[in-house]
């Protein structure tokens, strides 16, 4: 709600300081009080601090009762490195909204699976400066409504028809792929999966999907929604590849979900009950249903 405190963490790469402060100003303008730890940035090589430092800041913010949401400063790289240092039990006892995307996917899916609370795939502080009005509105609504947040996305393109229901899970394809085979790989069983990526050529997307397929990741997914594949070349060959990979599973598949490394990166909750209707080109999130 307006006036709530939002804590900022930097669990991954180092930030552009100007973009960071501009993003903080936007959060303040939306009516939230932004709390920035004094020791947030302790640069270590290409990261925002050592693994221990970044994990400590992340864990510590969950001990502050008045902070209602945790906003990640930037994605990029490095979040996977701190997974063994995250106190998932502490997070479960002190649930807060956690918001981010890209490399932050590693934290989002693991907090959901290991702590049992929703997380939110949405902007990071440094991408707020280029966010569209729709993206800012979705973020504000998610922050204001919390577990009551619901939304609907239309004008999705069907690659395979059908209508399914289930909780959402997903995020950055490369990050999800690199989690495969580790103790931090999430289960996609019974979920509607969404994926996005940036700067990956077709052959790498094929290799990542093939690895996840060989690991059995897609056997029991209920549906698939494709976000943006920014700077990945012509999207049609990517859709053709997805068509080839998912034809055997017999689940609805859509493209055009407005999220990922684009200005219209809407906020959606991982773990929330959703309806994916490829026949009508829509995805509806109903948080009150589990």
Task: Walk me through what this model shows.
This protein has 8 helices and 14 strands. With 290 residues, the chain is an alpha/beta fold. The strands form 2 sheets. Strands 6-14-13-8-9-10-11-7 form an 8-stranded mixed sheet. A 6-stranded mixed sheet has the order 2-1-3-4-5-12, with helices on both faces. α7 links the parallel β9 (192-198) and β10 (223-230). α6 runs parallel beside α7 (202-214). The radius of gyration is 18 Å and the shape is globular.
- Shape descriptor reads globular
Mean pLDDT: 95
Number of domains: 2
The percentage helix is 25-40%
Contiguous uncertain segments of 5+ residues: none
Quaternary state, please? single chain
What is the helix tally? Answer: 8
Provide the CATH topology of the largest domain. Rossmann fold
SSE blueprint:
Layout: E1 5-9, H1 17-29, E2 33-35, H2 51-61, E3 67-72, H3 88-93, E4 97-100, H4 105-115, E5 119-121, H5 133-145, E6 151-153, E7 157-160, E8 163-172, H6 173-179, E9 192-198, H7 202-214, E10 223-230, H8 235-246, E11 253-255, E12 268-270, E13 273-277, E14 282-285
Parallel strand pairs: 1-2, 1-3, 3-4, 4-5, 8-9, 9-10, 10-11
Antiparallel strand pairs: 5-12, 6-14, 7-11, 8-13, 13-14
Helix pairs in contact: 6-7, 7-8
